[in-house]
Amino acid sequence: MSIDPYVEKALRTVEGYEQTEAYASESVIHTVYIDGTRISNIETKRESGLMIRIMDGGRQGKASVVLGGDSSVPECARMAENVLRFSPESAEKRSFAMPGKARIASPDVWDRKVEDVTPDTLRELARRLIDCCDVDIPRAQIRVSTNVSRVMNGNGVDASHRSTLVYGHFTSMFRGEHPGEGAETFHGTHLDIPLESIGESLSRQAKDSATAKGFDGHESLSMILPPGQLGEMLLTSMGAAVNGENVKYGRSVWKDSVGSPVASEKLTVTDDPTVSAPLSCVFDDEGTPSDRRTVIEKGVLRSFLRDSFCGESTGNGMRRSSVEAQGAFERTPIVKPLNMTVSPGRYSREDIIAQTDSGILVERFANPEADELSGRFGLNVRCGYIIRKGEIAGVVNNSLLMGNMFDALKSIEMIGNDPVQTGVLNVPTMSFSGTELAGN
Fold it and tell me: How far is the CA of 308 from the CAs of 7, 139, 250, 289, in angstroms?
């Protein structure tokens, strides 16, 4: 099914309103599931849908439908008009995206191998993971998808995008006298999942966590976070602080800090949609041109990320997800990094450990996130390595690690040379001073 006629017809259907927009997406999603260290199922889903948004006299309306024939467009338009009719009127003047010229070359986000994937290919990927992991895999999935989208609006925007998405989520279990768990994820655009290294990590995590013990006492120490844990911690703190909507409503702790130091001089962060990453694109999902943007330069805040709702969009209005291609047409655009990248340092993870006098390398939190408003966190360490004088001295679990990510960004000790794509962030291992570990 081609989505183009639906988008064009939708825009014509609502052309009498002050502001109009039509967005459609089509996805094909293939997934292989592993349950109990066995391949349990392989499935394929196809989805295409449309969202119409309209604004008139301070009122807004929107609706979305799954595309199923000639009646889909008038049905969607009718629902959007009903919502507009009963929506509250706002004095704030808003506009959908304005047209602009592309600022970057098309990034490498389409893999023909994903487009041509077969059940046999997925089965082989799952089999490779099982074979290289010497502990149980209770649950895992590898999901690959193609996504095509187009957005048009009454201001003259007309932008299309196509990409492939590869996502994996894996768990492991060591079933000894004391069971241990592990978890890994993969985010990418190409079918180049490093299954052997993922299997090795799952095995190591499960075995090490089986030997973990609770931490006794209370201690101030350095926190070392590998990419898988650091990505979410940065997204819920730094990512929230540079989110233009949070700035607009005064929720960002950095709302008045452009041009001022907010982090260590060691930290440089860019939003870089020019490389192969799940949300890299020439135009965002509102049709605004994207660009490589410096967010933090040697600790100094340089810019925020905005969509058209925030005004002066930076091309960060996104409907798409870095995890799931399905359902893009049902989502209203929100501010997202396209590919927020921490410039890597010169240290290997072994170097960071060797130069840490007293610290904890957190292999896995129960839920790695910081408070968006304050940056504070108090997280259950499910598996962490205690470091004494540059060496791993033991493994701990069910202990509480406390600190503040905004303070941690000012207290960066070392930045690793091992960047990994974690959703919409690309980050290396990093170490921070000033955190506290407490036992139960």
Answer: 20, 40, 17, 11
Question: Per-residue pLDDT tens for 237-294?
Answer: 999 999 999 999 999 999 999 999 999 999 999 999 999 999 999 999 999 999 999 9
- Helix or strand or coil: residue 80? helix
Q: What radius of gyration do the chain's Cα atoms show?
A: 23
Best CA proximity match to 181, nearest among 394, 424, 396, 383: 383
Global confidence as pTM: 0.95
Give counts: helices (H), strands (E), the chain. 10, 21
Question: Which two tokens mark 287?
Answer: 């049709």
Helices (H), 242-325: 244-248
Compute the residue count for the chain: 440
Q: State the Cα–Cα distance between residues 75 and 70, nearest whole angstrom.
A: 9
Cα angle 366-370-371, degrees, rounded to a multiple of 5: 130
Q: What values do phi and psi take at 96, rounded to 5? A: -75, 175
